[in-house]
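Quick review question:
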């Protein structure tokens, strides 16, 4: 089901895949930083933190908020990921 919020531009798949890779590695490295003695073959998934409302706002469906792909390029650029010349600017 598509998001009910209109987005000005559909993100390209390369950027979305790069974002997913970056998020995966960021989570893995943060887990190792926070819990150096833990078994890192298992993924840690904290729940009910103060950030939960961002993805699951009270009183609205999660389908009514912008999807992660809508912020992929902005997040990657903010943290300093270098885009190939052929990527959208």
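Suggested answer, residue by residue:
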């Amino acid at each position: 089901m598509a998001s009910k919020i209109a987005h000005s531009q559909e993100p390209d798949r390369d950027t979305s895949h790069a974002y997913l890779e970056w998020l995966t590695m960021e989570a893995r490295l943060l887990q190792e930083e926070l819990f150096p003695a833990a078994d890192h073959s298992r993924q840690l998934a904290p729940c009910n933190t103060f950030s939960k409302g961002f993805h699951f706002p009270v009183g609205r469906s999660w389908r009514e908020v912008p999807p992660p792909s809508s912020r992929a390029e902005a997040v990657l650029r903010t943290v300093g990921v270098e885009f190939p010349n052929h990527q959208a600017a």
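Why it works: Residues 1-8 have pLDDT under 50 and may be disordered. Residues 14 and 43 are 25 Å apart (CA to CA).
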